[in-house]
Fold:
Amino acid sequence: MKIIDLSLPIDEKAFEVHKVGIERVTHKAGVEKFNRVIMGKTILGKIKYALGRRIIKKEQLPDEEFLSLEIVHAPVHIGTHLDYSFHYGSKSENRASKTSDEIPLEYCYQNGVKLDLRHKKPNEVIKALDIESALAKINYQLKSLDIVLLHTGADKLYGGADYFSNYPGVDPSAIDYLLDKGIKIFGVDTMGIDRPYRFMLKEFLETSDPKTFYPAHFYGRKREFIHIERLANLEKLPDSGFKIICFPIRIKNTGAAWARVVAII
Structure:
C-alpha cells in the first residue's frame, strides 16, 4: 500500500489574499503562558500574577520546558479544504444549505479518478466536453460516488501571487455532467473552481452579467455538490485504481472545512 499526500499546508509565510497567522508559543515560553492563562481566570489570580506570583516555575519542570502551543488564525478556505452548499448560498435545491459538518462521511472515502486537464489555460473553463474527452483518453466510465480530481498543475504555483491568478475555472456544464453520473465530490488543484478575479471580475464589471461572476460556486444553489479546493501532487497519481480519503475537520456551521486529503494506492 502506498499513501500519497494530496494536501497543501496552512502556511503563514505563503502568499495569501486573506490574512493567516500562527501564534507559536515555544516550550520555554509555555510555562509563562500556562501561569498567565490559569491565574487569569480569577481577579485574585490576576493580581497575584501581576505581583510576580506563579503557580508553576520553570525550574520545577524537566529541562525547564513546558508544552509548545500553536494557535492558528485562518479562514476555513486556506489550505486544502472541502466546500459545501452553505458556502454557495443560504439555500440549495430550494432548501436550507448544508454546512461542512453535515458532509456525509461515506462520500469521503471512495474510488478516485484523475482527469488530465493541464492543457486548459487560465482564462478558460473546464466544460462537460472536456470532462468527457479526458475520460475517453483513459478509457474510464464514471461510477456513482467516484471522487473526480481535475488535474491542471496549478498547485505548482502555490506560495506566490501567481497561484491566485493563473488557473482555469470549472464551468457549470462540467458540474452537471459529474452530478448526473452520481458524483458527490470533485476536486481541483487550483485555489478555486471559478476563474481568477483578473478574468471573472473584469468581465463582470464590463458586462454587469451576473452569469460571469462566481458561476460555478453559485451553481451550488441550484444543485447540491461538494468540492475540494487546493489539492496538490496529482501528477503522482495513476489515472484510476486508487482510493481517496478526504474527511473534513468537524467545525460547526461553516461553509468549508480543512481536510488532509490522501490517495491510497
User: Anything to note?
Assistant: The CA atoms of residues 51 and 213 lie 58 Å apart.
